[in-house]
TrEMBL record, chain A:
PANTHER family: CHECKPOINT PROTEIN (PTHR12900:SF0), MITOTIC AND DNA DAMAGE CHECKPOINT PROTEIN HUS1 (PTHR12900). It comes from Caloenas nicobarica (Nicobar pigeon). The gene is Hus1. Component of the toroidal 9-1-1 (RAD9-RAD1-HUS1) complex, composed of RAD9A, RAD1 and HUS1. The 9-1-1 complex associates with LIG1, POLB, FEN1, RAD17, HDAC1, RPA1 and RPA2. The 9-1-1 complex associates with the RAD17-RFC complex. HUS1 interacts with POLB, HDAC1, FEN1, PCNA and RAD9B. HUS1 does not interact with RAD17. Interacts with DNAJC7. Its main location: cytoplasm. Coiled coil: none annotated. The keyword Disulfide bond does not apply. This is Checkpoint protein HUS1.
TrEMBL record, chain B:
The gene is Rad9b. The lineage of its organism: Eukaryota, Metazoa, Chordata, Craniata, Vertebrata. CDD domains: PCNA. InterPro entries: DNA_clamp_sf (IPR046938), Rad9 (IPR026584), Rad9/Ddc1 (IPR007268). It comes from Caloenas nicobarica (Nicobar pigeon). GO terms for biological process: cellular response to ionizing radiation; DNA repair; DNA replication checkpoint signaling; mitotic intra-S DNA damage checkpoint signaling. The keyword Signal does not apply. GO terms for cellular component: checkpoint clamp complex. This is Cell cycle checkpoint control protein RAD9A.
């Protein structure tokens, strides 16, 4: 098992740092899956996470100038690592002006991702900052736990409002209630509702637009027959929603959510070279 | 008694100094002397000492008079006061408010009343007055012979801050490793560090990056980063280079800055190699400091005082290791072999001979008085921290103890200066 990668371009480095920062806000520990062409940050839906799950996909070519990987075996040319994304975020935080960043899988005292940041200095040789981030190697027999989640059979799919607006609203609602209801219909209308003994607050969004999903045989018929005004709703943990919104550092190109009534809300945030899917289950 | 006025521009510096000292301990010594005002602090395990000295030129106005207490035969040359940092911080809290609105700050001491008054004269005629009670206390001063250190680095505070920023704020200890060819700061790890849970950071630098680089002996010293951060923040407002004086592991490391109107020194204990070795040997029993202590046959009643310092950090372990040695000296003291005056004075590092005289009493009295606890701790810990074996006649001095204090010669006047005060 070998892995080496290098980023030289500052813009790519900043972009990569931003992705890592977002992941760090969403998960304390997660799985990093490395393939020849892509990196995935995966959080599988365990009870410990409160049932949320995450799937984030990046094309390595968009970030790394050099990327070499050798998986556990020829037919399974992939590496699955368990790590604390906050550590990676911290290692990259001070690399804002780096000349180069190299990441390598090493095994000195234990398996680590070694991040070596080459910083400019006043002297002839660069300053080198090395961070050894401990990782866990996930054995192949457990790889099945980390398969890409399928898009659920949703009732309504709708584009999200401007994330910044949504974030500030959810943040204020968070002070009043532990759970929030998201409801939306196929007419581009979405409501965020909280209700407590003392107060209920609803924020209405309209003209959001509904994404058209490529119909597979039989799958979409339920959605197409649906009354356009009828709301699909789910009550979810408000903190999880707030974490998702707060973690976004750049406005995505596309942001949408799929609601399965009373079951789960599936968020999809697409950037040019990164896609992030986040599932928040409905509260009982 | 002292009265001084700090002008607006310097308030920021003064505030940073207080915050820097706050990193060391909850209380600090407010020590006005003729030449200026010294603020000092030492942490509970005596492994960190800070002193910021503002010369009278720092102040818009500085006036100090000696006060004689009715009960003292000699004039007090200085009367240090101990203040709780938490009480002082609010005075200098909102830095923006401070810089925009406060025109100057006056500080008066009122010995009889045991008060120190901080008065902020703000714009629009607003005057904020804070009266703080101080505790009488014994003088605190460490003596550290910087010029005897083989390794000296001088670096701009900006660079030092740029280095330390790579370590997380939770990082307690950091190891500085130098050879004539390179300098490296890295996270400290012990033998039993759980590497699978800890992120380790290492920064390698070229000696050329330092304004002054002298490495007389290859060494690797480990010190507490948390305590240093205060000095780093402080040095940023002064834009004066930071000097680092150190030796091999086990000897203290001093970070200091000096300009025309102020001097600041932070002296931190470093983990000694011997202690590291012993620590790994005694690893199974290490959790209980009492267990370590009980192995020492010389450990006497002083164990009650000092065993309470649990070795939560490696530096505390150093303290416990050194104490038995000193404890032995204490025992010999009660048998009538008093330390020589020079040694005792060096140990306490008295600023003024008069103070020293007050402290030097026959041993039996020392035990009971409130001063004695301080003296004992001072002798033990400062002794272990800064002086190594200030020649203990009976013991064969161990190779790891070299006296760092320029032990004052007996022929020197008591009233005159002490050796390289900090």
């Amino acid at each position: 098992m070998r892995f080496r990668a290098k980023i030289v371009d500052l813009a790519c480095l900043n972009h990569f740092s931003r992705v890592i920062n977002t992941i760090a806000k969403l998960a304390k520990t997660c799985t990093l899956r490395l393939t020849v062409s892509k990196l995935y940050f995966i959080l599988s839906d365990k009870v410990a996470n409160g049932g949320v799950s995450m799937w984030c996909e990046l094309c390595q070519g968009n970030f790394f100038d050099e990327f070499q990987m050798e998986g556990v075996a020829a037919e399974h040319n992939e590496i699955y690592l368990e790590l604390v994304p906050e550590n990676l975020s911290r290692a990259l935080k001070t690399a804002q002006s780096a000349k180069a960043v190299k990441i390598k899988l090493t095994n000195k005292h234990c398996p680590c991702l070694r991040v070596a940041v080459e910083l400019p200095s006043l002297s002839s040789s660069s300053r080198i900052v090395t961070h050894d981030i401990p990782v866990g190697i996930i054995p192949r027999r457990l790889w099945n736990d980390f398969r890409e989640p399928s898009v659920p059979d949703f009732d309504v799919s709708i584009y999200l409002p401007v994330l910044k607006t949504m974030k500030s609203i959810v943040e204020r609602m968070k002070n009043l209630s532990n759970s929030i209801v998201i409801e939306a219909n196929l007419s581009g209308e979405m409501n965020l509702k909280i209700e407590t003994d003392l107060v209920s607050v609803t924020t209405h969004f309209k003209d959001l637009g509904n994404p058209a999903w490529a119909s597979e045989d039989g799958c979409q018929s339920s959605a197409q027959d649906r009354d356009l005004e009828s709301m699909a709703e789910a009550r979810i943990d408000i903190k999880k929603l707030q974490q998702l919104l707060a973690g976004q550092q750049v406005n995505p190109t596309k942001a949408m959510c799929n609601i399965v009534s009373k079951r789960i809300v599936h968020f999809i945030l697409l950037h040019e070279d990164v896609s992030l899917q986040y599932f928040i289950p409905a509260l009982a | 008694a002292m009265k001084c006025v700090i002008g607006g521009a310097h308030l920021r510096v003064f505030r940073r100094a207080i915050h820097a000292i706050a990193r060391i301990s909850d209380e600090f010594w407010f020590d006005p002397i003729e030449k200026g005002l010294a603020l000092r602090s030492v942490n509970s395990s005596r492994s960190a000492y800070a002193c910021v000295f503002f010369s009278s030129m720092f102040f818009q106005h500085y006036c100090w008079t000696a006060v004689s207490q009715p009960c003292q035969k000699e004039k007090q040359l200085s009367l240090p006061c101990k203040l709780i940092i938490k009480s002082v911080l609010p005075v200098f809290r909102c830095v923006n408010v401070l810089e925009r609105n406060v025109e100057k700050c006056s500080i008066y001491t009122n010995i009889n009343d045991h008060h120190i008054t901080f008065q902020l004269l703000c714009k629009h005629g607003v005057v904020k007055t804070y009266n703080l009670v101080f505790q009488d206390c014994d003088p605190l001063q460490a003596v550290f012979a910087k010029h005897l250190c083989p390794n000296i680095l001088k670096v701009h505070s900006r660079l030092l801050a740029e280095i330390m920023i790579h370590f997380p704020t939770s990082q307690e200890e950091v190891t500085l490793s130098v050879t004539p060819m390179k300098v490296c700061f890295k996270s400290y790890t012990e033998e039993d560090t759980d590497f699978s849970k800890t992120m380790l950071t290492e920064i390698q630098l070229n000696p050329e990056e330092f304004d002054y680089f002298q490495v007389g002996v290859d060494s690797e010293v480990t010190f507490c980063l948390k305590e240093l951060r205060g000095l780093l923040a402080f040095s940023e407002v002064t834009s004066v280079p930071v000097s680092i004086h150190f030796d091999v592991s086990g000897k203290p490391i001093a970070f200091s800055i000096e300009d025309m109107v102020l001097e600041a020194s932070f002296i931190l204990a470093t983990l000694s190699d011997v202690e590291k070795e012993r620590a790994s040997q005694q690893a199974p029993e290490r959790e209980n400091s009492g267990a370590v202590a009980s192995k020492k046959p010389q450990w006497n009643s002083n164990a009650a005082n000092t065993a309470s310092a649990k070795p939560a950090s490696p530096l505390a372990k150093q303290e416990i290791k050194d104490i038995p040695r000193a404890a032995k000296r204490e025992v010999t003291g009660t048998e009538g072999t008093a330390m020589t005056e020079a040694e005792e004075r060096a140990a306490l590092g008295e600023a003024a001979g008069a103070q020293y005289q007050k402290v030097r009493r026959p041993r039996p009295q020392l035990q009971g008085s409130p001063i004695s606890y301080f003296c004992k701790r001072c002798i033990f810990q400062f002794h272990s921290l800064f002086f190594g074996a200030v020649s203990c006649q009976k013991d064969a001095p161990s190779h790891s103890f070299h006296s760092l204090a320029t032990a004052s010669d007996t022929e020197e006047d008591f009233g005159n200066a002490q050796s390289s005060p900090v």
